[in-house]
Amino acid sequence: QVQLVESGGGLVPAGGSLRLSCSASGRTFSTYSMGWFRQAPGKNREFAATINWNLGSTYYAGSVKGRFTISRDNAKNTVYLQMNSLKPEDTAVYYCAASRSSSVLVEVDYWGQGTQVTVSS
Prior knowledge:
Elements: E1 4-7, E2 10-13, E3 18-24, E4 33-39, E5 46-51, E6 58-60, E7 68-73, E8 78-83, E9 92-99, E10 110-111, E11 115-120
Parallel strand pairs: 2-11
Antiparallel strand pairs: 1-3, 3-8, 4-5, 4-9, 5-6, 7-8, 9-10, 9-11
């Protein structure tokens, strides 16, 4: 069982930056691929970014590529999402996800509770 707890959300003006953190319980964190999804009001949850468990390779949705960076610190059981050049359309609840597969795009085994990010125009 893995528990994920997100933090770092908040209110930021357009063009600003935020860094989200996701802390995971359990001793097998390094064997999970991790990722971030987001859900805006009235919309479906959508993929944002993922980082592979073994090579640390990353992949981003087109809407965030070049502005967001996902990283992980296995010693701290934590995955991060650095968000720069934020836009009002980035406003959403951001969810951390963990997968035993090569990517959270294949399947998600665990979800966090979500953290709100609001970007003002």
